[in-house]
Amino acid sequence: MAGAAAHDFNNILTGILGNLELMQRRANRQGITEFNDYLTGARSAASRGVDYAQSLLAVAGFQPLEPKHISAASFIENLPELISAGIAAQATIHATCAAPPDLICDEAKLEDAVLELAKNAAEAGARTITITAAPEHLNQQQAAHFGINPGAYLALAITDDGAGMNDETAARGFEPFFSTKNAPGLGLAKTLGFARQSGGHAHITAHQSGRTIITLLLPAAVKP
Length: 224
Prior knowledge:
The protein has two domains: 2-60; 68-219, Histidine kinase-like ATPase, C-terminal domain (Heat Shock Protein 90, 2-Layer Sandwich), CATH 3.30.565. Helix content is 49%, strand content 21%. It has seven helices and seven strands. The strands form two sheets. The chain has a five-stranded mixed beta sheet with strand order 2-4-5-7-6. It has a two-stranded antiparallel ribbon with strand order 1-3. Helix 3 (72-86) packs across helix 4. It starts with a helix and ends in a 5-residue tail after the last strand.
């Protein structure tokens, strides 16, 4: 239902943005500038609506993905710079990997997911954010627990020393629209949607005060 609503909403907003662009062009041709601020505000609001619709698609697992072969080691190596540039808070970023397997994944969406988790950590007061990547093999029982296929995965864990979560928050952390802040509550839900759509999973490994670990499990690339 969320995916269908997001698709229709996105189409409506595309029409609104298109007509606003035509209005702006006509005003520019006629030298009319008194409505520029209103048009800019309207386009900005519509663009935020498009972003929200994309978030709903991600939660529903229907966002467009462009999977490709990714070197996990190179991806992890570039994360500290990416995260430092993407969060407002001053947090120390560490990234380590232990012979991580390569992935077949949408790299841009994976970056977005990790950045979303880092932002959540920073908002929770984290001074240090650590990303670790390691191979993990799930047997039939372990995979069934997450509702995914058994086999080789990359476990990408984001650990922070922020405020942590209580049991209720951890249990509902990935629930769409649940939030302990004045926010839409789609960040973790989007991350789970991306992981599931990619053939993996996301879960909260630890949530005690001063230590939160959220792990992305993503299928490893099959060696030829």
